[in-house]
Amino acid sequence: MWQCPKCERMFKNTNQDHYCGQITTIDEYIAAQSEAVQPLLQQVRKTIRSAAPKAAEKISWQMPTFWQGENLIHFAAFKKHISIFPGGEAVAVFAERLTAYKTSKGTIQFPRTSQLTIS
Ligand SMILES: [Zn+2]
């Protein structure tokens, strides 16, 4: 294992390429993820963007966030899934359409194994 002396993250390979430092934009966040998941994250971003065209992109709670007077939604990549965090109310309202997905309070999980079909 190799630890980057600047950001102190651990990597398998010495001098592993990575985004080093504080992530401040969604582009940086996505670029720091594995190549396999990047298109999925771009798809989630595009979907949210089309639903909330006036929202601003930012990083909040270390997660990509769409902001419009308040945090509308966060999303994030995890080892086996991508989560979106639209808040408890949204998850409750759309509960019937979300039965295929794992949800918990304010969160919806999309497995990374399947191509996302949200549009
Ligand atoms: Zn680093």
How would you briefly describe this protein structure?
The protein is α+β, with helices and mostly antiparallel strands.
| Largest beta sheet: strand ordering | 3-4-5-6-8-7
> What's the total number of strands?
8
Q: pLDDT below 50 for ≥5 consecutive residues: which ranges?
A: none
Shape-level CATH architecture of one domain: Alpha-Beta Complex
Major β-sheet profile = 6 strands, antiparallel
Structural class: alpha+beta
Encode the helix/strand succession as letters.
EEHHEEEEHEE
Overall outline: globular
Bound molecules: zinc ion
CATH fold type of one domain: Aspartate Aminotransferase, domain 1
- What integer value in Å does the Rg equal? 15 Å
CATH hierarchy, class of one domain: Alpha Beta
Annotation field: number of helices: 3
Description:
The protein has 119 residues and is an alpha+beta fold. The chain has a domain of 79 residues: Alpha-Beta Complex (Aspartate Aminotransferase, domain 1), CATH 3.90.1150. 22% of the residues lie in helices and 29% in strands. The chain has a six-stranded antiparallel β-sheet with strand order 3-4-5-6-8-7, with helices on one face. A two-stranded antiparallel sheet has the order 1-2. Strand 5 and strand 6 form a beta hairpin. The N and C termini lie far apart (40 Å). The model has no long low-confidence stretch (mean pLDDT 90). The site of zinc ion has 6 residues, from loops.
